[in-house]
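**Reference record**
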Amino acid sequence: METSPFKTAIEKDLRERGRRRTIAIVAGLGMAALLAGGIALTQFAGMEPIPEVVEEVAPVDYYQGVALTAQAAIVYDLAKGEVLFQKNADAQLPLASLTKLLTVYAAADALARTAVVPITFNALAEEGDSGFVYGDTFTFEDLARLTLVSSSNDGASAIAEAAGQAHASSGSSLLASAAQAAGLSQTYAVNGTGLDESGSVSGGYGSAHDVALLSGALLAAAPDLAKATTESSISVTSREGKAFTEKNTNQEIPAFPGALLSKTGFTDLAGGNLAVVYDAGINHPIAIVVLGSTREGRFTDVERLLSRTLNRFASL
Protein backbone atom coordinates (compact mmCIF):
# COMPACT_ATOMS: atom_id res chain seq x y z
CA MET A 1 0.00 0.00 0.00
CA GLU A 2 1.40 3.35 -1.02
CA THR A 3 1.88 6.14 1.54
CA SER A 4 0.56 9.63 0.79
CA PRO A 5 3.29 12.27 0.55
CA PHE A 6 1.13 14.61 2.65
CA LYS A 7 0.68 12.02 5.37
CA THR A 8 4.36 11.50 5.35
CA ALA A 9 4.92 15.24 5.75
CA ILE A 10 2.44 15.44 8.65
CA GLU A 11 4.06 12.54 10.44
CA LYS A 12 7.42 14.20 9.94
CA ASP A 13 6.08 17.47 11.30
CA LEU A 14 4.58 15.75 14.32
CA ARG A 15 7.83 13.98 15.02
CA GLU A 16 9.70 17.31 14.78
CA ARG A 17 7.23 19.00 17.12
CA GLY A 18 7.58 16.16 19.57
CA ARG A 19 11.35 16.45 19.46
CA ARG A 20 11.25 20.22 20.10
CA ARG A 21 8.77 19.72 22.94
CA THR A 22 11.06 17.16 24.57
CA ILE A 23 14.03 19.51 24.30
CA ALA A 24 12.02 22.32 25.81
CA ILE A 25 10.90 20.15 28.72
CA VAL A 26 14.44 18.98 29.40
CA ALA A 27 15.72 22.54 29.15
CA GLY A 28 13.04 23.72 31.52
CA LEU A 29 13.91 21.05 34.02
CA GLY A 30 17.60 21.92 33.74
CA MET A 31 16.88 25.61 34.36
CA ALA A 32 14.73 24.76 37.33
CA ALA A 33 17.56 22.69 38.75
CA LEU A 34 20.00 25.55 38.27
CA LEU A 35 17.63 27.98 39.91
CA ALA A 36 17.11 25.60 42.82
CA GLY A 37 20.85 25.21 43.17
CA GLY A 38 21.28 28.95 43.11
CA ILE A 39 18.70 29.32 45.84
CA ALA A 40 20.45 26.65 47.88
CA LEU A 41 23.84 28.30 47.42
CA THR A 42 22.28 31.64 48.36
CA GLN A 43 20.80 30.12 51.48
CA PHE A 44 24.16 28.63 52.56
CA ALA A 45 26.27 31.66 51.60
CA GLY A 46 28.05 33.17 54.61
CA MET A 47 27.63 30.11 56.80
CA GLU A 48 30.71 28.62 58.57
CA PRO A 49 32.13 25.58 56.73
CA ILE A 50 31.75 22.25 58.44
CA PRO A 51 35.13 21.49 59.97
CA GLU A 52 36.96 18.42 58.73
CA VAL A 53 37.31 15.80 61.41
CA VAL A 54 40.93 14.61 61.63
CA GLU A 55 41.65 11.73 63.93
CA GLU A 56 44.82 12.34 65.96
CA VAL A 57 47.27 9.48 66.16
CA ALA A 58 49.34 9.37 69.33
CA PRO A 59 53.11 9.14 68.67
CA VAL A 60 54.69 5.80 69.44
CA ASP A 61 56.87 5.76 72.56
CA TYR A 62 59.58 3.31 71.58
CA TYR A 63 61.20 3.51 75.01
CA GLN A 64 58.08 2.88 77.07
CA GLY A 65 58.77 0.55 79.98
CA VAL A 66 62.49 0.22 79.30
CA ALA A 67 64.17 -0.99 82.51
CA LEU A 68 67.55 0.56 83.32
CA THR A 69 69.95 0.11 86.20
CA ALA A 70 71.61 3.47 85.49
CA GLN A 71 70.82 6.54 87.57
CA ALA A 72 70.90 8.68 84.42
CA ALA A 73 70.71 8.00 80.69
CA ILE A 74 70.12 9.66 77.36
CA VAL A 75 69.62 8.78 73.72
CA TYR A 76 70.60 11.89 71.79
CA ASP A 77 70.32 12.56 68.05
CA LEU A 78 73.54 14.43 67.33
CA ALA A 79 72.50 15.17 63.75
CA LYS A 80 69.28 16.94 64.77
CA GLY A 81 70.16 18.06 68.30
CA GLU A 82 67.14 16.14 69.58
CA VAL A 83 66.64 14.15 72.77
CA LEU A 84 65.00 10.83 71.87
CA PHE A 85 65.00 9.43 75.42
CA GLN A 86 66.19 10.71 78.77
CA LYS A 87 66.33 9.69 82.39
CA ASN A 88 67.76 12.34 84.74
CA ALA A 89 69.85 13.44 81.75
CA ASP A 90 70.91 16.75 83.33
CA ALA A 91 71.90 15.33 86.73
CA GLN A 92 75.56 16.00 87.54
CA LEU A 93 77.25 12.70 88.38
CA PRO A 94 80.80 11.28 88.63
CA LEU A 95 82.18 10.49 85.18
CA ALA A 96 85.05 8.11 86.00
CA SER A 97 87.03 7.39 82.82
CA LEU A 98 84.51 9.14 80.58
CA THR A 99 86.60 12.15 81.67
CA LYS A 100 89.25 10.87 79.24
CA LEU A 101 86.96 11.93 76.38
CA LEU A 102 87.36 15.51 77.58
CA THR A 103 91.13 15.08 78.06
CA VAL A 104 91.66 13.87 74.50
CA TYR A 105 89.21 16.44 73.09
CA ALA A 106 91.09 19.27 74.80
CA ALA A 107 94.49 17.91 73.77
CA ALA A 108 93.41 17.50 70.13
CA ASP A 109 93.07 21.27 69.98
CA ALA A 110 96.37 21.96 71.79
CA LEU A 111 98.63 19.33 70.21
CA ALA A 112 99.46 18.34 66.65
CA ARG A 113 98.87 14.69 65.79
CA THR A 114 102.62 14.15 65.56
CA ALA A 115 103.45 16.08 68.77
CA VAL A 116 105.74 14.13 71.10
CA VAL A 117 104.17 13.15 74.42
CA PRO A 118 106.58 11.78 77.06
CA ILE A 119 105.66 9.39 79.87
CA THR A 120 106.61 11.28 83.04
CA PHE A 121 107.01 10.22 86.65
CA ASN A 122 103.71 11.97 87.43
CA ALA A 123 101.96 9.91 84.75
CA LEU A 124 103.43 6.66 86.05
CA ALA A 125 102.21 7.46 89.56
CA GLU A 126 98.60 7.01 88.42
CA GLU A 127 96.64 3.87 89.27
CA GLY A 128 96.98 1.04 86.76
CA ASP A 129 99.86 -0.15 84.60
CA SER A 130 99.99 0.11 80.82
CA GLY A 131 103.55 -1.21 80.65
CA PHE A 132 105.09 2.22 80.21
CA VAL A 133 108.41 3.23 81.74
CA TYR A 134 109.81 6.65 82.38
CA GLY A 135 111.20 8.13 79.19
CA ASP A 136 108.88 6.33 76.76
CA THR A 137 107.61 8.75 74.15
CA PHE A 138 104.71 8.54 71.72
CA THR A 139 103.08 10.71 69.12
CA PHE A 140 99.95 12.29 70.53
CA GLU A 141 97.84 10.39 67.99
CA ASP A 142 99.15 6.96 69.03
CA LEU A 143 98.99 7.60 72.76
CA ALA A 144 95.48 9.08 72.47
CA ARG A 145 94.24 6.02 70.60
CA LEU A 146 95.74 3.64 73.15
CA THR A 147 94.44 5.74 76.05
CA LEU A 148 90.85 5.79 74.83
CA VAL A 149 90.71 2.12 73.84
CA SER A 150 92.37 0.67 76.95
CA SER A 151 91.37 3.52 79.30
CA SER A 152 95.02 4.00 80.28
CA ASN A 153 95.40 6.31 83.28
CA ASP A 154 99.13 6.70 82.62
CA GLY A 155 98.40 7.76 79.05
CA ALA A 156 95.63 10.20 80.00
CA SER A 157 97.81 11.85 82.65
CA ALA A 158 100.72 12.22 80.21
CA ILE A 159 98.44 13.71 77.54
CA ALA A 160 96.89 16.21 79.98
CA GLU A 161 100.35 17.25 81.17
CA ALA A 162 101.75 17.71 77.65
CA ALA A 163 98.66 19.56 76.41
CA GLY A 164 98.73 21.89 79.41
CA GLN A 165 102.37 22.75 78.79
CA ALA A 166 101.72 23.36 75.10
CA HIS A 167 98.82 25.61 76.02
CA ALA A 168 100.87 27.36 78.72
CA SER A 169 98.34 26.45 81.38
CA SER A 170 97.61 23.75 83.91
CA GLY A 171 95.92 20.56 82.77
CA SER A 172 92.78 21.33 84.80
CA SER A 173 92.57 24.84 83.31
CA LEU A 174 92.85 23.40 79.81
CA LEU A 175 90.06 20.91 80.52
CA ALA A 176 87.84 23.66 81.92
CA SER A 177 88.34 25.75 78.78
CA ALA A 178 87.55 22.78 76.55
CA ALA A 179 84.36 21.98 78.48
CA GLN A 180 83.22 25.59 78.15
CA ALA A 181 84.02 25.67 74.42
CA ALA A 182 81.95 22.51 73.88
CA GLY A 183 78.98 23.98 75.77
CA LEU A 184 79.15 21.46 78.62
CA SER A 185 77.33 23.28 81.41
CA GLN A 186 77.43 20.42 83.93
CA THR A 187 80.99 19.22 83.31
CA TYR A 188 84.25 19.87 85.10
CA ALA A 189 87.37 17.78 85.62
CA VAL A 190 89.60 17.66 88.68
CA ASN A 191 92.14 15.52 86.82
CA GLY A 192 92.65 14.12 83.32
CA THR A 193 91.95 10.48 84.19
CA GLY A 194 88.61 10.60 86.01
CA LEU A 195 90.03 8.56 88.90
CA ASP A 196 88.46 9.34 92.26
CA GLU A 197 90.48 11.92 94.19
CA SER A 198 89.18 10.56 97.49
CA GLY A 199 86.29 8.58 98.92
CA SER A 200 84.01 11.56 98.34
CA VAL A 201 85.50 13.52 95.43
CA SER A 202 85.49 12.21 91.86
CA GLY A 203 88.09 13.09 89.24
CA GLY A 204 85.41 14.42 86.92
CA TYR A 205 81.73 15.33 86.94
CA GLY A 206 79.14 15.80 84.24
CA SER A 207 75.68 14.88 83.01
CA ALA A 208 74.53 12.27 80.52
CA HIS A 209 73.47 15.10 78.24
CA ASP A 210 76.92 16.70 78.46
CA VAL A 211 78.65 13.40 77.72
CA ALA A 212 76.50 12.97 74.61
CA LEU A 213 77.52 16.45 73.42
CA LEU A 214 81.17 15.77 74.29
CA SER A 215 81.11 12.49 72.35
CA GLY A 216 79.74 14.32 69.33
CA ALA A 217 82.35 17.08 69.68
CA LEU A 218 85.23 14.58 69.82
CA LEU A 219 83.79 12.66 66.88
CA ALA A 220 83.66 15.87 64.84
CA ALA A 221 87.11 17.13 65.89
CA ALA A 222 89.00 13.82 65.72
CA PRO A 223 87.01 11.09 63.93
CA ASP A 224 90.17 8.99 63.52
CA LEU A 225 90.76 8.89 67.27
CA ALA A 226 87.10 8.12 67.91
CA LYS A 227 87.09 5.33 65.33
CA ALA A 228 89.93 3.55 67.12
CA THR A 229 87.61 3.01 70.09
CA THR A 230 85.39 0.71 68.01
CA GLU A 231 88.13 -1.89 67.53
CA SER A 232 88.50 -4.93 69.79
CA SER A 233 92.13 -4.07 70.50
CA ILE A 234 94.79 -1.46 69.78
CA SER A 235 98.45 -1.80 68.85
CA VAL A 236 100.87 1.13 68.86
CA THR A 237 104.63 1.54 68.89
CA SER A 238 106.58 4.07 70.95
CA ARG A 239 109.10 6.32 69.25
CA GLU A 240 111.76 4.10 70.81
CA GLY A 241 110.37 1.08 68.94
CA LYS A 242 108.58 -0.64 71.83
CA ALA A 243 105.25 -2.27 70.84
CA PHE A 244 102.11 -2.08 72.97
CA THR A 245 98.90 -4.02 72.43
CA GLU A 246 95.84 -3.49 74.64
CA LYS A 247 92.28 -4.84 74.56
CA ASN A 248 89.27 -2.57 74.34
CA THR A 249 87.55 -2.10 77.70
CA ASN A 250 84.28 -2.54 75.79
CA GLN A 251 84.49 -5.96 74.19
CA GLU A 252 80.87 -5.62 73.03
CA ILE A 253 81.64 -2.76 70.64
CA PRO A 254 82.81 -4.76 67.58
CA ALA A 255 79.27 -6.21 67.33
CA PHE A 256 77.67 -2.78 67.74
CA PRO A 257 75.99 -1.82 64.40
CA GLY A 258 77.56 1.24 62.79
CA ALA A 259 79.72 2.03 65.83
CA LEU A 260 81.57 5.36 65.69
CA LEU A 261 82.81 5.78 69.28
CA SER A 262 82.88 3.93 72.61
CA LYS A 263 84.17 4.79 76.08
CA THR A 264 83.76 2.97 79.39
CA GLY A 265 84.18 4.24 82.93
CA PHE A 266 84.07 2.71 86.38
CA THR A 267 85.06 3.88 89.86
CA ASP A 268 83.67 3.36 93.35
CA LEU A 269 81.99 6.78 93.30
CA ALA A 270 80.74 6.66 89.71
CA GLY A 271 79.65 3.07 89.38
CA GLY A 272 79.45 1.84 85.79
CA ASN A 273 79.37 4.41 82.98
CA LEU A 274 79.28 3.90 79.22
CA ALA A 275 79.03 6.18 76.21
CA VAL A 276 78.63 4.98 72.63
CA VAL A 277 77.86 6.66 69.32
CA TYR A 278 76.54 4.82 66.28
CA ASP A 279 75.44 5.86 62.80
CA ALA A 280 71.68 5.45 62.31
CA GLY A 281 72.01 6.31 58.62
CA ILE A 282 74.30 8.26 56.35
CA ASN A 283 76.05 10.76 58.66
CA HIS A 284 73.34 10.43 61.31
CA PRO A 285 75.18 9.87 64.62
CA ILE A 286 73.17 8.86 67.69
CA ALA A 287 74.76 9.01 71.17
CA ILE A 288 73.68 6.64 73.94
CA VAL A 289 75.01 7.39 77.43
CA VAL A 290 74.38 5.75 80.80
CA LEU A 291 75.77 6.98 84.12
CA GLY A 292 75.65 5.45 87.60
CA SER A 293 74.92 1.89 86.52
CA THR A 294 76.93 -1.19 87.56
CA ARG A 295 80.03 -2.78 86.03
CA GLU A 296 77.92 -5.19 83.97
CA GLY A 297 74.65 -3.27 84.03
CA ARG A 298 76.06 -0.42 81.92
CA PHE A 299 76.40 -2.76 78.94
CA THR A 300 72.90 -4.18 79.42
CA ASP A 301 71.44 -0.68 79.76
CA VAL A 302 73.02 0.51 76.52
CA GLU A 303 71.97 -2.67 74.72
CA ARG A 304 68.34 -2.12 75.74
CA LEU A 305 68.39 1.51 74.64
CA LEU A 306 70.08 0.58 71.38
CA SER A 307 67.41 -2.05 70.63
CA ARG A 308 64.61 0.49 71.14
CA THR A 309 66.45 3.07 69.06
CA LEU A 310 67.03 0.65 66.18
CA ASN A 311 63.28 -0.12 66.19
CA ARG A 312 62.49 3.59 66.15
CA PHE A 313 64.58 4.29 63.07
CA ALA A 314 63.45 1.11 61.32
CA SER A 315 59.88 2.40 61.44
CA LEU A 316 60.67 5.71 59.77
Summary: The mean pLDDT is 87. Residues 5-44 form the longest helix (40 residues). The radius of gyration is 37 Å.
